[in-house]
Write a structure and sequence with these properties.
Two copies of one chain form a homodimer. Chain A has about 400 residues and is α+β, with helices and mostly antiparallel strands. Chain A has eleven helices and 16 strands.
Chain lengths: ~400, ~400
């Protein structure tokens, strides 16, 4: 953590106040897992009747906590969420499994629920054993002191290399009433297409059945967390959970076509994208926030692959860091994506400036205007392939010397 | 080029003298394409009867010169090779094609051959028009002054961000006689699995038929140029050509099972690996040379994908730069490769030190010994998946702040 200096220049200028979500309470604690002088445990409690959905990392080497959550999700009910930072409990073998079982047991006892209703997430260093006994002294007091208002504290307790806590809130007109959706997230490195942020938790008081929660997350992650990348690396721990306390009242909704569900899903999508952008804006060492639009591809999937090829190209990302309108490297990244493309139909834009058209430099473009544009903190790059109607947008950040510094001595 | 300071610390300690290859002559020249005060054009001339094989970038947006070479290769004969540095003539549209045609025409006229017997390669900035008239004053004098000895000068003329010229030579017992294989290469960034170096040219006096030359290159590139990566980026210009003058005499060989061909192929493989390693050792900003062995995979192909996932992980590469034995990031890279793996059977070694076994930290391992090992300039990482017999080795370098500096202001 020594290399992290101050808050990302791309951080939001202000953070919203998060209202209470009826049926959910939060406490944070300092268990001394790794970071001195800060909180590193977050306990969230849910009233009986709370449903839960989730999506997880596609890593073939998931963490012990991801294994636990996947199994726990089968029942679709939740009473508690325990998250720690400082240690990912990943690649920890039988010890990792024992820690997970013991932690869930402690929370279940403090809350008075079944261990399978306890969800767990861990983030931090991989491969170091996580000692469950660290949780023992803090879980009881945390459960006893939880309140409905500690959302910012929750977002802060789950940070690792993050430079600011990530929070978002939305209100949904839900039939004749209003429901709330609150979300928190953490993530700054190891951010890649498949479940981008390491951790994000969303809570609502809407009454929605568990399978529909997972279904909505799966669909809405596509254009939010799965559409961002910092370094192309996929975490072993990526976890996105959506808890619905149902305290807004009414029947439990399970029909995706229901008008209330559709309204909810729109706001959920917006909130997830907001959190995903906050993660990119806290990309390790990031100084530029970059949106990459790909249009005219043969399909959305093809556009996504090309967008990610550009967004993960170290040469493109270092050029952006250097404020260099180096569209040649974008061509190279399009070429290596392996997707249908016709070199001689490509057009490339920085913002609204067309720099290349029909497979060559746009001879009307001004190098000075392009260079001027690259000095912006938020950059939009558009690549039009000119061969189809598929389109997609992904978001990334630049690759700076600070990224190398942060990751060259993360453990020290 | 301002950020490039001195020769890579990983450069070979000495460079071999290259003997003449009967039937091949070389000249270099300064055409002032981009770099002041250095050579930027290399012309190689071949006697009639020279055969040629080649493999090229898999980029969907190849350079105009790659298009040209692919077409010229159909006849399988070569009389000249013209290479320039400073401008890649890539993404230059109709102008790029015109430049290629004009350049080949100029060389054909100077040499007295058909334009289709002239091979071309260009390396440098993408997307800037390359003016063929730059070549006009230098081709005639170069053709007139070519000698059999200018191999080091040739390797130097084709450099871009390279910090040293890359040369290699081998001698083959070829039936009752000896034949020579000389090779040169350039490349330092935009180095990726599919045709790693941007440019490499190999010349022999052995009599080998053109289709067999291409076949041998295709097979031997797999574990040489295609097994290295600096930054996962694939160039638009990657070109590997093998010219055989046949001046050693004897029948033209076309049978891959011929004993002489097999002996030749072994030495060719060794020379290509040598050149490929020289490219990695000149990786932009590199301070460490890293071999990654993957064993116990379900197949060689699967082992290759996992090896490349590790070799291209910015988190692994920055950890190596920081001399941090951070095997957790290797686990994460194995996990994201999408290949069969069993977390609880993984073992990881730094050199001969086993740091993880059976899916968790090896509790016998010494953190100090591992840290000590990471201070070496050449690092070997071995990942044993424990689920099959597939194995592979790939080579890469670390990711340093200098890489970012070099690529953040390449064009300025």
């Amino acid at each position: 953590m020594g290399a992290v200096t101050g808050v990302s220049p791309l951080a939001p200028l202000s953070f919203p106040d998060l209202p209470e979500v009826p049926g959910a309470r939060i406490a944070t604690a300092s268990a001394g897992i790794r970071y001195p002088g800060r909180t590193d445990v977050m306990l969230m409690l849910f009233d009986p009747g709370t449903t839960v959905g989730g999506v997880f990392t596609r890593s073939k080497c998931p963490s012990a906590t991801v294994d636990w959550c996947r199994a726990a999700l089968a029942a679709g009910t939740a009473r508690a969420l325990l998250v720690n930072s400082g240690n990912a409990n990943a690649f920890t073998g039988m010890r990792g499994k024992a820690t997970v079982t013991a932690s869930a047991g402690m929370v279940a006892e403090a809350v008075g629920c079944r261990p399978e209703d306890v969800f767990l997430a861990s983030t931090g260093v991989i491969g170091e054993p996580l000692d469950a006994s660290k949780f023992a002294p803090v879980i009881g007091p945390a459960a006893a002191s939880a309140t409905g208002t500690a959302w910012h504290e929750a977002a802060r307790a789950i940070m690792t290399t993050d430079t600011y806590p990530k929070v978002a809130t939305r209100e949904v007109a839900f039939g004749g009433q209003k429901v709330v959706i609150n979300g928190i997230a953490k993530g700054a490195g190891m951010i890649a297409p498949d479940m981008a942020t390491m951790l994000s938790f969303v809570v609502t008081d809407a009454p929605i059945a568990a399978p529909l929660l997972t279904d909505m997350l799966r669909r809405e992650a596509v254009d939010s967390f799965n559409a961002i990348t910092v370094d192309g690396d996929t975490s072993t721990s990526d976890t996105l959970l959506l808890f619905a306390t149902g305290k807004a009242g009414g029947e439990l909704l399970a029909d995706p076509a229901d008008r209330r569900v559709r309204a909810f899903r729109r706001e959920l999508a917006d909130l997830l994208r907001d959190l995903a952008h906050q993660v990119v804006r806290d990309g390790e060492g990031a100084r530029k926030f970059v949106a990459i639009n790909v249009t005219g591809a043969t399909s959305k999937k093809s556009a996504r692959r090309i967008g990610m090829s550009i967004a993960n190209s170290p040469l493109v990302k270092t050029a952006i860091a250097g404020e260099d309108a180096n569209w040649g490297r974008i061509v190279a990244a399009v070429g290596k994506a392996g997707e249908p493309a016709d070199r001689d139909r490509l057009a490339i834009y920085f913002g609204s400036l067309r720099v290349a058209v029909n497979g060559e430099r746009d001879f009307d473009y001004s190098e000075e205007a392009a260079s001027e544009y690259m000095r912006n903190q938020a950059i939009t790059i558009t690549v039009d392939l000119g061969i189809g109607r598929g389109r997609d947008t992904v978001w990334t950040c630049d690759l700076t010397k600070e990224y190398v510094a942060i990751n060259g001595d993360y453990r020290s």
